Amino acid sequence: MTINTQQPDATQVSAPPDTSPDGPSRPSRAPRTDGIWPWLFVLPLLIGVGTFFIWPILQTFWYSFTSWGVFGGATFTGLANYGRLLTDPQLYQSLVNTIVYTVIVLLGIPIAVWLASLLNTPGLRFAQFYRVLFFLPYVAMPAAIALVWRIMYNGDFGIVNWFLGLVGIDGPYWISTPGFALVAVSLVGLWSSLGFSMIILGAGLKDIPPELYEAAELDGASRWRQFHALTVPLLTPSIFFVLVVTTISSFQLFDLLYAILGSTNPVIPKTMSLVFYFYNAGFIDNDKGFAAAIAMVIFVLIGIITVVQFRVQRKWVQS
Amino acid sequence: MTGIIEARGSKVAAATRAASRSRTQTTTRPGRRGGSHWWIHVVLGIGGFVMAFPFLWQIVMALSTNAQVTSPTPTFWPGELQWSNFARVFERLPFLDQLATSIWVTLIRTLAQIVLCTLAGYAFARLRFRGRAVILGIVLSILLVPSQVYLISQYQIVQGLGWLDSLAGIVAPGLFSAFGTFLMRTAFLNMPAELEEAARMDGANPFQTFWRIMLPLARPSISVLAITTVLWSWNELLWPLVVSTRAEDMPLAAGLATLSSDRTIDYPLLMAASLMAMAPVLILFIVLQRRVIDGLASSGLK
Questions:
Q1: Whether residue B17 has pLDDT greater than 60
Q2: Do A136 and B58 lie within an 8 Å CB cutoff?
Q3: ipTM for this model
Q4: Which letter does DSSP use for residue A262 in this model?
Q5: Which among A124, A68, A85, A11 has a CA at the least distance from the CA of A295?
Q6: A42-96 pLDDT, tens per residue?
Q7: Is the separation of the CB atoms in B103 and B281 below 8 Å?
Q8: Domain spans of chain A, in order of start
Q9: Contact between A41 and B210 using a beta-carbon 8 Å cutoff
């Protein structure tokens, strides 16, 4: 072995004599593998990914079938966690809250399609300035901007209710009323993801050949007709992409909810999301087995929704 | 299920195309309707104002007195600007400690991801080895799993290593990224093979080929990786919240989210702190706006 390492040709290690039967039939310019090199390239990553991702995924799956003592140590309890989970009303409350949040955030997609098509008007001035404005919420730290929204939503002195007062609406105590708290958080979610959707859709719009619009113009198609007969259908692949990505990220709502409402807000039980429920179980109540079961449920739900979206896609996305 | 990964891949290609196109045609055609875009400006102007308002209002509140912030009639211009609110942040909160943590966490993760993901991405795209497809499939499958699934176990690993309440604990899992590997693999896959072959003919080993030929060509994708990692790392809340309990050890996001209630009713202080916490990333964004927007669009990261 020590002699072998002196040899500069590392390909020797796993490319033994080129006399294999299929040797001549291939274009035998290069050996079939690059020997030890690829492993040197991938091993650092693989060790980390294995330790911090692959192994944890398998372990969580196992944990979801165990119960944890006060001093740690897991005992196998079969489906007990899942049984308890499926009979816990909090699961369904969190699921409904998560769905409501996701639906409200998804309502931003049609708005984003419209705004993106306006933003991509050829020759529009200040387009880059608008792009920056719309994208600003997406890059802002959720934990920080949430504090601003918390004050803006304040029932006594928040500016949101002051604006509503201008049009004669007596605004509620947003953050401390269960139903309103969820809507308040959802609107912030919509606000912060709108720019991202617009940018993705904008990239899709740039791929539509301008000749099509010129032809439509010659045919005397109105701006609105161009929008819904040309832009929207040709944009469906991008719309689909935004839909899938937004759904997956909305289903994992945590930061905004935690930071806007605050961890000790009494509306939390009625307003919490699935990930919040998971966080409470795993890291506040220290019920790791139960939390693992919640994580698996979140995983399966996101999987199902994504598969369904891909199935339904064939019906409305133009290829 | 791998459809989403493919969708991201095609997105990367599409956005790169769009980006290069917009770069080559810097001047677009003049308005079709002779520049009568005023109503578009009205719509986008109102929308842009709604988007920017919370930031503007945050600045106003950060410079106001607490009495002005808590008054039912809003004070749009505080009169005398209360710069002392910013000074109070450093007196009353462990802001500098948290800022240092955020900077270190972000720097270390970004550098590590650039090195590890670029190396692995290159091997997955261009080098041949046994089991390549299977290993790549396993790495990419992580992209389909929501982070909650590995959180508990990651916590225990970090606990086992004695890294709770330490920089190492916050940093560790984020050094490795399946997404980054995927991004870099796509970048290397899209590069012409000729240069590489020429280098190999000249007797360069795979590392030399990678380092001298391919890495310089991958610079645009590396900047996308750097931007996404910086943004994600700076803003991340859940993981640091889980592994750090002492305020001084937390990065800014976790620090802001766990302020005790006696601090959170000092609104101008809160606004000054949150403004300074966001500022580095917002400034970076405004300076590198085109690159950030195109980069994030091409990555499809959310």
A1: no
A2: no
A3: 0.86
A4: -
A5: A85
A6: 999 999 999 999 999 999 999 999 998 766 678 899 999 999 999 999 999 999 9
A7: no
A8: 97-316
A9: yes
Instruction: Choose, out of B114, B258, B302, the residue to mutate when testing the contact with A (most A CBs < 10 Å).
Output: B302
Calculate the alpha carbon distances from B229 to A60, A287, B110, B255 in Å.
26, 31, 6, 20
**Structure tokens of B190?**
């899209």
pLDDT of residue B193: 84
Express each pLDDT in A15-31 by its tens digit. 444 444 444 444 445 56
Instruction: Determine the pLDDT at residue B28.
Output: 42
Q: What is the pLDDT of residue A26?
A: 46
For residue A249, the chain B residue with the least C-alpha distance is B302
- CATH code linked to domain A97-316: 1.10.3720.10
| Domain boundaries, given as residue ranges, for chain B | 94-299
On chain A, the residues whose CB falls within 8 A of the CB of B156 are: 59
Q: What secondary structure letter does DSSP report for A53?
A: I
Tokens of B282: 């917002």
The CATH architecture to which B94-299 belongs is: Orthogonal Bundle (1.10)
Residue A244 has pLDDT above 50, yes or no: yes
The lowest-confidence range among A93-107, A129-143, B282-296 is: B282-296
Contact B48, A130 (CB under 8 A): yes
C-alpha to C-alpha distance for A256 and A107, rounded to whole angstroms:
18
A60 contacts chain B (CB < 8 A): yes
Give the separation between CA A148 and CA B69, rounded to whole angstroms: 11
Q: Is B261 exposed, middle or buried (0-12, 13-18, 19+ CB in 10 A)?
A: exposed
Compute φ and ψ for A20, nearest 5 degrees.
Answer: -60, 150
Q: What's the rounded Cα separation, in Å, for the pair A178 and B32?
A: 49
Structure token digits, residue B89 = 């942040």
Give the span between the Cα atoms of B107 and A280, in whole angstroms.
30
A121 to B18: CB separation less than 8 angstroms, yes or no: no
pLDDT recorded at residue B262: 67
Paired residues of A76 in beta bridges: A66
* Contact check, Cβ <8 Å, A123/B31: yes
